[in-house]
Write a structure and sequence with these properties.
DNA-binding, 10 helices, 0% strand, Arc Repressor Mutant, subunit A, homotetramer, 78% helix, 2 domains, Tetracycline Repressor, domain 2, mainly alpha
DNA sequence: CATGAATGAGTTTTCATTCAT
DNA sequence: GATGAATGAAAACTCATTCAT
């Protein structure tokens, strides 16, 4: 019986957190980080402000949770791509395409969680931010490419970092300027650069 | 005499602005953008709060000034490098080295003005932000490289953007983690990636 | 049960508003419009400053509320007098008497809401200010008087305006100088002037 | 010699005061009472802010001076009309016409000095405000009318007060609404009301 | 346990007045 | 005497957090 109550309680907690998460995402998307107040989140979640503090100790913790849960699906689907039986190059292309599409969809939030320094400062102590996770994914592919012999023996982590920066930057660019460069073209350009660099080889 | 008074006045104004600039830099470095209040800046500058508003109409204008002044010398010296009579590759290397060194020196502020989305939003209407300026510098070099025949005929602006992102990212990385990778090695890695990409020469 | 909570909540809200209203009235009376700060109102109401903003979006809205609530009863009772089955002259006399007595009671506030230009500017968009409402009441009576044949065919709105001005002025006078002229005598004088003017007719 | 210096000094003082007066009038007209800061007055007067405090102890004193000087010419010309050899009725008409025209010209200031309670509070201790002076002028004419036999034996000061209120009100009305009623028609209406009231001649 | 009213420190900005030069 | 930079109290408004019900 206590079991049952326990289970019910946990279920409620989890549903509440989900509701608050969705509300927070909506508010963040609409008002930006500065405009995201506990009041607005509570109202959007149709929950008393005080209740937010039942589920999250404070605002930072709430944001950390949002951050985590927002990236979870991206991480999972990225993992699936990583696990696919592809050679490095097409795998990378698939990953990039996936990212661009995901960001396209969540453009409102991208800034806060990938780019925004204020958020990063806020979440500093947080384990694996989307960023490090993403860089590691890239590193994995690069390492795979080297092992397969398709890639040169570059410094893996530096290269992953560089690639991530390059990609993030064009994402940013796209979002800030509502730029029109279609995804296909973008990917082609990135892949080309990544593969051959700029040098007019031999 | 009026001349003299005039001159003295301008000198004082400029010194005050400099003092406020330095105070703002200190506060930004220490407390971040969120924590940078006019009160703190005034206190740090050892000036009355009201005086800030004598020299800057409002907070945004003050931040714009800091932004401007911070990047001015970087822009100027970058220009000098661009003007040198070098072929594209060594020119790029010189530019990167210069940037890395400058950022090393001003690490505390770099985040706010290159990375932070809130700041970029704040300064969006500002003419040439550091970013576009930097991207344009890179584009110039790439174009030069193509003309010289050393580079392939890549999409110049996309490539410049990618390169900038890559570089910015490792800077960020360096700053946030106090990473130790020495500048020489970093530059070598970046140049290598930029020139040849990752693909194994076939 | 929800009903009860709802009801209680509304009651509390209404009591808070009333409390804030009274505090605002006290502060306005004591310090004048210029001296009426949200801080003072909060302190007088023995409420946190922030709470004022729970009940009123901003200072203007608070003042509008005070204005409204102050004139509401006057408007209602004026309406009752207008609806009475009296001929124009006694009706006017009754109305004036009512006004004088009401103002006697609320002397401290009268200035801000009838006379003060700054307030009028502040409340300009407000629907029926006390002023236009009053002028319209007078116009109604004058029109009635003309229809009954007791009044000449004067320009109704101009005359209403003139009468209002005349009355307002003596009210002001009474309040500013704590003048002693008893209400009966005042009304007699006003009515006499209004009816016959100054001319030694025929 | 001391004499001469003395005289020169007084002359300068008087010219400075005049300049400040004109600047203050300009600022008041343009920005309203709220927007009239010492900074703006100083700038308009092309005088250092500190200098204002050489000629006027504080802002209130400055405003009192402006008030005084603004009404001086109106008072003087009113006096001339009062002194003319006219019977009461045409004299009153001439006076009203004069007032309307003067106000038309200085409409921007009218509010502050005739209507605005804040100003009146500010200037409360000031001797003869425009208002009392004007009421007294009207009282004089009414008294004259009674003596000439053209007016009934009304309560002089009350009637003067009523008339002033009526007139002031339509002035206000005119200014606030930029109402179009031409002066001639306005005067005719006021004179008619003043002479005969509203009652139908029996 | 949920609620949401209440809190009050903290933010940007203004401006009358002073005082060193 | 003239100047205007410097001052700092005071204003409106916000919002994370608490706690009585």
């Amino acid at each position: 019986m206590a079991r049952l109550a326990e289970r019910r309680k946990r279920l409620v907690t989890s549903m509440m957190k989900q509701g608050i998460y969705e509300a927070a995402v909506a508010v963040l998307t609409r008002y930006g980080l500065e405009g995201t107040t506990m009041d607005r989140v509570a109202e959007q979640a149709e929950v008393a402000k005080g209740s937010l503090y039942k589920y999250f100790q404070n605002k930072v913790e709430l944001l950390q949770f949002v951050h985590e849960r927002l990236l979870e699906p991206l991480r999972e689907s990225s993992q699936e791509i990583l696990d696919e039986d592809l050679s490095a190059l097409p795998k990378l292309e698939a990953l990039l395409r996936h990212w661009f599409e995901y960001l396209q969809e969540h453009r409102g939030l991208f800034n806060f969680f990938f780019v925004d320094h204020a958020v990063r400062a806020l979440l500093r102590d947080h384990d694996r931010t989307g960023r490090t996770s993403a860089v590691q994914d890239l590193a994995l592919i690069i390492r795979q490419g080297i092992e397969e012999g398709g890639f040169r023996r570059v410094d893996v982590s530096l290269t992953a970092e560089l690639l991530f920066g390059a990609v993030r930057d064009v994402c940013e660019q796209r979002i800030e300027t509502d730029a029109a460069l279609p995804i296909d073209q973008l990917i082609e350009g990135v892949m080309d650069f990544f593969q051959h660099g700029v040098g007019a080889d031999e």
